[in-house]
Structures are given as structure tokens and as C-alpha cells.
Design a protein that fits this description.
mainly alpha; two-stranded antiparallel ribbon; 2 strands
């Protein structure tokens, strides 16, 4: 099964909310590069298809974290499969149509200049990162407060937000904390140089 097929399968099985079908239709359309976009320009998933691969890794990590007995028994934290899927699968939809291929000259091993492709950012909707994903998803379906805060603050303290707001959001909305953990695990340990 390809990453595209797996994403669509999980999405259709877990997300039944009004408007979700329209969002999936958009992600699968020619107007979206969701399934071919990289996840970043230089770091994790900086290759074609990196975004959907990262998204699925985050989903797997989040499911694993939230299935731990300690999370449920000691902390009393439990979310629906739909909320878990929404938070993980949509956390980075702000990256749709965000990266573009450009070219630069570099010396090859023989010392000759050659043109090589690399990813650049072309942000046509400069609305931030997590908040842009919430904005896009909310245009198609209603998010719960937990889902919206999870997506908004999935970068945790590594974003450009006020640390006081980040800390308060992670404390008030545990799904945000666990999505941040899943995103970090996927980026650094599954996709990054620590793998």
C-alpha cells in the first residue's frame, strides 16, 4: 500500500465529520500537492512525498502514545479515534502548495559546476504554521477545541509563539502535548538523522 493509499484509507475509516469528505477531495485534487510535497526544505522529509510520509508517522506515533496504559489509567486521558486522526492527519496541511522546486549551482565531486534542484518556500497564505492548518481544516469541517489547540500548538516550544501561551495550551489541552511529542518523535527519530 502506498502512503497515499494508506492516508486515504485511515482518513475515510476514522473521520466521519460533516465536510471531511470535501477536505479529502481537495487534498486529492490537482489543486493540492499534499501527496507529493516535502515535509521541509532541509530537515525531515525534504524529498518528494515527505509530507504524507511524515503525517503518517505522526499518526502512528500519536496512536502509540495514546494507547499506553499509563495515559488512560493514571491520567484518565482518552480521545476518540476520529480526534486522533484529525489532529495527526491534518496538523501540517499548512504545507500544501507551500514548497517549490528551485535550482542552484553547486560543484560536483569532480569540481565542475552543475545545476541541482532544492526546495524553497513560497507562502501564498502567510498565516503562521499551526494556526494556518487550523484555518484550512476549519474551512471544511468543525474542529473540537482539543483538536484545534492540538493542531495549533503541535510545534510546542520550537515555534515562534509566546512560551507562556504554549505552556498553558499544552497544560490545558493534553492532545496538543501528545501531538507535539508524536511530531517530534516522527521528525527526529523516524525521519531525522537519529534514525
Amino acid at each position: 500500500m502506498t502512503n497515499r493509499e494508506r492516508f486515504i484509507s485511515i482518513y475515510k475509516e476514522k473521520i466521519k465529520r460533516d465536510g471531511a469528505d470535501r477536505l479529502l477531495e481537495y487534498l486529492c485534487s490537482e489543486s493540492s500537492d499534499f501527496f507529493t510535497a516535502p515535509a521541509s526544505t532541509r530537515f525531515h522529509g525534504n524529498y518528494e512525498g515527505g509530507l504524507v510520509e511524515h503525517t503518517l508517522n505522526v499518526y502512528d506515533c500519536l496512536c502509540d502514545i495514546l494507547s499506553r496504559p499509563r495515559i488512560k489509567e493514571a491520567y484518565g486521558i482518552e480521545y476518540s479515534e476520529e480526534s486522533i486522526a484529525i489532529a495527526a492527519l491534518l496538523h501540517d496541511i499548512c504545507k500544501v502548495n507551500f514548497y517549490k522546486v528551485s535550482f542552484r549551482n553547486v560543484k560536483n565531486p569532480e569540481g565542475k559546476w552543475e545545476s541541482v534542484p532544492y526546495y524553497t518556500i513560497e507562502d501564498n497564505l502567510p498565516y503562521g504554521h499551526g494556526e494556518k492548518s487550523v484555518y484550512i481544516a476549519s474551512g471544511y469541517m468543525r474542529l473540537t477545541r482539543d483538536e484545534a489547540f492540538a493542531i495549533r500548538y503541535h510545534m510546542g516550544f520550537s515555534g515562534n509563539e509566546d512560551p507562556g501561551n504554549v505552556g498553558k495550551a499544552l497544560e490545558m489541552f493534553p492532545l496538543a502535548f501528545f501531538l507535539n511529542c508524536a511530531d517530534t518523535e516522527a521528525a527526529y527519530f523516524i525521519e531525522g538523522s537519529n534514525k
